[in-house]
Amino acid sequence: MSSDEDKLSGEDRLIARFFQPIATHPGALGLSDDAAFIKPPPGCDLVLKTDAIIGGVHFFADDAAQSVARKALRVNLSDLAAKGAKPLGFLLSLALPKEIGDDWLAGFAEGLRGDAVLYGCPLFGGDTDRTPGPITVSIAMFGSVPEGTMVRRAGAQAGDRVFVSGTIGDAALGLVLRKGAPWTLSDAQRQHLLSRYLLPQPRNALAEAVRAHASAAMDVSDGLAGDFAKLCRASKVAAEIEVARVPLSEAAKAVLAAEPAMLETALTGGDDFEIVCTVPAGKAASFRAAAQAAKVAVTEIGEIKAGEGARFVGAAGQALIFKRASFSHF
Amino acid sequence: MSSDEDKLSGEDRLIARFFQPIATHPGALGLSDDAAFIKPPPGCDLVLKTDAIIGGVHFFADDAAQSVARKALRVNLSDLAAKGAKPLGFLLSLALPKEIGDDWLAGFAEGLRGDAVLYGCPLFGGDTDRTPGPITVSIAMFGSVPEGTMVRRAGAQAGDRVFVSGTIGDAALGLVLRKGAPWTLSDAQRQHLLSRYLLPQPRNALAEAVRAHASAAMDVSDGLAGDFAKLCRASKVAAEIEVARVPLSEAAKAVLAAEPAMLETALTGGDDFEIVCTVPAGKAASFRAAAQAAKVAVTEIGEIKAGEGARFVGAAGQALIFKRASFSHF
Fold first, then answer.
1. Which residue from A245, B74, B124, B240 could staple onto B200, CB 3.0 to 4.6 Å apart?
2. Helix (DSSP H) and strand (DSSP E) numbers for chain A
3. Is pTM, for the whole model, over 0.90?
4. B316 alpha carbon, distance to own chain's centre
5. Which of A9, A44, A47, A50 to substitute to test the interface with B, most B CBs within 10 Å?
6. Which residues 225-254 of A have a C-beta within 8 angstroms of B?
7. A97, A133 in Cβ contact below 8 A?
8. Looking at the complex, does the CB of residue B132 fall below 8 Å from at least one CB of chain A?
């Protein structure tokens, strides 16, 4: 510890040691001021999002500190991606129980720094507090889009194709697996499902393709069925989704083969952090090409219709009814 | 509850009922999307700040929900004021224990709305979660300043006058009083000290005067002695503060008359949410006039010197040594 650090209070010492290296933007002033400033890119709107994760609620108390940091950032990055926005940076509000020490903080800062570099989103400022409760990590994320082009939930039109990125259900099944589900899976399949719950893979590489093509979009964080129903409600449209076309990983397919009832968990369980979007039929080919160029898999799963309500249709043409379409803590 | 609300999940219902009325900016999209957008004022920098308050740490569990909401906003508004920035809006991340119901939320939303209107800072988006811990309210606040004019901690020069707004020590003494200090005070004096702890009065009315005149500024949130020492460190200057000139309320004076040792609490205890700033001598008269026009009391308490270290000097010319110059949770 330098003699300069000796003069600092506990919180200032934490900031200097762990968080300053992530505050690479000049407007963050090395976290040495009370606020940061940023000049938004000319001709752009600023896109704003906040989401928190809480120990015992959104992650397990024994998850590695690196994973906690990355999950906290990525659940917010996923929203920016779905809105077609480019990350600019973030604010961090961190509440820590007394027993959290420098080792945990070093790991947390390492995870944060890795993702700040990977996604181009430096730290602009933060706040650390002690809490008698669990670890609580609240992120406010800032991004930019050319003026007036943020992709919204509202905007889908009858005839638009419905696309989803990546694969659906892995994280929800990974959570069930972590809680002890007795499925017979290969090591690789177990690892795949567990890691998809532990560490979201937000589709920021797809953001520009979404912005250039999608009539509406949102990230899938509370289950595909419920989230897509919200998009249809906001757009005042209906939709028909063919469940057989919903992209599943090999691991998820293995689970569903053994326990078909897990289909509902896969479609409604949440934590996917994929993007569901609607694309006008005439732009679908171009969207596919842009996604391929961005190296993000996208799959067409259905079509927007006039009317109201998102129907999920099974292989025999029957509409699936879910007990609970969407995950909610309330 | 409308039939539309029937379709909503618990969190969506909360948002629609309590928080939508505060999201008056068109870019907040009525909180019906995953993110908000804002077009920053032309020629301006965006100023960013986050601060959280936690039940049992920053406020009492039995504080009124309205006060909790206002305190959460005001601790952030105070930073914007000290940086010379005009509020634009905020993001809210709210973690609530299971026992918190609609009554509390209604009060909280009412407090939030009142201050959003009073300070011109609408809600842009939010996140609500259940927590096994205490109520945790994290705010990310953004404001604007003409490009390149955010007032920093660094910038004070030898010869600058040191000003502080309002009165110092009330909140820290109010906290001691609330914990049961046996001081003999009038009802009005008790009320004054208690309310200054319960509900900060950030000096946003002074922001433009600070921006136009101050060479350096910060808000006083962790105690005047420690916070001002940080300003001097960032500015690489020394200072001499005359303790006898530090503005005190009648109530604080009554406490110090009865218990002189409380002077240290007043100067180091925190939660003042006043502004301390340095103003070049040639601008001091103009700053006083601007503050008067803004109806915010400001008091000159000392002068910046060449060197290092902020000295607080007593009536007899002796330097005061504080056990702990600044409040820290770490």
1. B74
2. 11, 11
3. yes
4. 32
5. A50
6. 226, 230, 233-234
7. yes
8. yes
Q: State the residue for tokens 């507090």.
A: A129
What is the C-alpha separation between A292 and A118, in angstroms, rounded? 20
Least CB-CB distance to B45: which of A33, A39, A82? A39
Strands B86-96 and B123-130 come out as parallel
A106 touches B: beta carbon within 8 Å = no
Q: Under a CB-based contact definition with an 8 Å cutoff, are residues A135 and A55 in contact?
A: yes
Search chain A and give the residue with CA nearest B57.
A131
Which residue from A95, A133, A150 is facing B132, i.e. has the nearest CB?
A133
Interface check B330 vs A, CB under 8 A: yes
Record: contact A35-B83, CB cut-off 8 A: yes
CA distances from B249 to B170, B188, B246, B313 (A): 7, 12, 10, 20
- What torsion do the CA atoms of A98, A100, A102, A103 make, to the nearest 10 degrees? 160
Least Cα distance to A131 among A243, A52, A246, A207 occurs for A52
First-residue to last-residue Cα distance in chain B: 45
Residue pair B150/B83 in contact (Cβ under 8 Å)? The answer is: yes
> How far, in Å, CA of B24 to CA of B22, rounded?
6
Q: Hey, are the CB atoms on B46 and A37 less than 8 Å from each other?
A: yes
Nearest to B133 by CA among A24, A287, A299, A53: A53
Alpha-carbon gap, residue B248 to B242, rounded angstroms: 13
The two three-digit tokens of residue B188, written as one number: 């009005």
Facing residue for B34 by CB, picked from A49, A132, A140: A49
**Sequential pLDDT tens for chain A (330 residues):** 233 333 456 777 888 889 999 999 999 999 999 999 998 888 999 999 999 999 999 998 889 999 999 999 999 999 999 999 999 999 999 999 999 999 999 999 999 999 999 999 999 999 999 999 999 999 999 999 999 999 999 999 999 999 999 999 999 999 999 999 999 999 999 999 999 999 999 999 999 999 999 999 999 999 999 999 999 999 999 999 999 999 999 999 999 999 999 999 999 999 999 999 999 999 999 999 999 999 999 999 999 999 999 999 998 888 888 877 665 555
Of the candidates A29, A57, A125, which has its C-beta nearest B152's C-beta?
A29
A137 touches chain B (CB under 8 A): no
Give B-chain residues touching A83 at CB under 8 angstroms. 33-35
A142 in contact with chain B, both atoms CB, cutoff 8 A = yes
Instruction: Determine the residue of chain B that is closest to A222 in CA distance.
Output: B9
Most A CBs within 10 Å: which of B37, B218, B329, as the mutation test of the A interface? B37
Angle at B13 between CA A304 and CA A153, to 5 degrees: 30
CB contact under 8 A, B147 and A219: no
Burial state string for A100-126 with b = 16 or more CB within 10 A and e = fewer than 16: beeebbebbbbbbbebbeebebbbbbb
Q: Sort A283 into a burial class: Cβ within 10 Å, 0-12 / 13-18 / 19+.
A: middle
* Span B41-68, pLDDT tens digits: 889 999 999 999 999 999 988 899 999 9
| Nearest-Cα residue of chain B relative to residue A51 | B127
ipTM of this predicted complex?
Answer: 0.92
